[in-house]
Amino acid sequence: MSQLRLNPLTGRWVVIAANRGTRPGMLVSPQVPIPEIEPCPFCPGNEDETRPPIRTYGRNGEWVVRVVPNRYPAFEGDSYLHVYNLGPVFTQAAASGAHEVLVYTRDHDRTWADLDDAQVEVTMAAIRDRIEDHAHRRAIRYTQVIVNQGREAGASLQHAHAQLVGLPFVPGEIAEEEAGFRRFEGSCLLCTTIEAEGDAGHRTVYDDDRVLAVAPYWSGAPYEMLVLPRHHHVHLSDAEPQDVTAIGRALRSCLARMRGLLGDVSYNIVFHTAPHRHAGPYHWHVHLVPRLTSVPGFEQGTGVAINISPPELAARRLVDTPENAAPAGLYDSAGTPAP
């Protein structure tokens, strides 16, 4: 029987419906290749193909991470949010802010799952630095850090990269999470989640003294993961560098396990931190969502996600799959779940 589970971060219900996973073709195939662009603007030697860098991190005379302005920015400019009412239902404002690209590997064919410890450390330090820089720009109220890997996740280039988007407003998803923290009775919502999921154990995917990664109880998508720093901080930029780096290593491990189990599927990594100059309550964290199913009309019409893979089963399969293992087929040709 299907279950309703409440996501306390957003206040939304999700449906866990394992029986719907037996329908043929419910999980998408591995990534559809992205057409190659020649020359790749993010490969070494092609630096002139991007706008001048905002910041470069180097080692042994070579860059290892580059931050450049997005060539096609959705947000740009330093003006404050100024709303114009053009009619009874027509309201607009200039899309000021910042839109940056963080190239976190020199290797065209590597993804986050392939980064070594040193590269993870520099990448996470760069993310922390850029969020801190945005926080000092009064016109930017929130910075969204994302990784879109694969066409189904929204990537337009093959070379792995992240995006940092500085917004002149607080987006609805973050406002809902802030409300979830305020609604929660007791201590911090995610500190309590860390303790409760640690006690339960059967949804844990990664665990060390700084990070807990779980397939959360309220997962809205198959094999969704929530990566949580154990040490409580409202803002990512206020966290200890060791904790920030540890999150990057945990993401690498989770992605490697996911690749070993599912193959080279598309996915999104979404960093959530409190809006700039907000004092909380909040606890920064990271969402990892593989793009294995489409979004049909019910989800679009209601905002209620239907997850065909219970998180308890997802976590067990991820834990049982060694990092960088050969992908195992989860579904046979008839759509029947593998044991």
Please provide the count of β strands. 15
Give the overall pLDDT as a whole number. Answer: 91
Residue share in β-strands: 15-25%
Unreliably modeled segments: 329-339
Give an overview in words:
By secondary structure, the protein is of the alpha+beta class. The protein is built from 6 helices and 15 strands. The strands form 3 sheets. Strands 3-4-7-9-8-13-14-12-11-10 form a 10-stranded antiparallel sheet, sandwiched between helices. A 3-stranded mixed sheet has the order 1-2-15. Strands 5-6 form a two-stranded antiparallel sheet. It is globular. The two termini are 19 Å apart. The C terminus is likely disordered.
Short description:
By secondary structure, the protein is an alpha+beta fold.
Keyword list:
single chain; about 350 residues; alpha+beta; HIT family, subunit A; three-stranded mixed β-sheet; about 25% helix; about 25% strand; disordered C terminus
Please give the structural blueprint.
Blueprint: E1 3-7, E2 12-16, E3 55-59, E4 62-69, E5 83-87, E6 90-93, E7 98-103, H1 117-135, E8 142-149, E9 162-167, H2 172-183, H3 189-200, E10 204-207, E11 211-214, E12 225-229, H4 241-262, E13 267-272, E14 285-290, H5 297-302, E15 305-307, H6 311-320
Parallel strand pairs: 2-15
Antiparallel strand pairs: 1-2, 3-4, 4-7, 5-6, 7-9, 8-9, 8-13, 10-11, 11-12, 12-14, 13-14
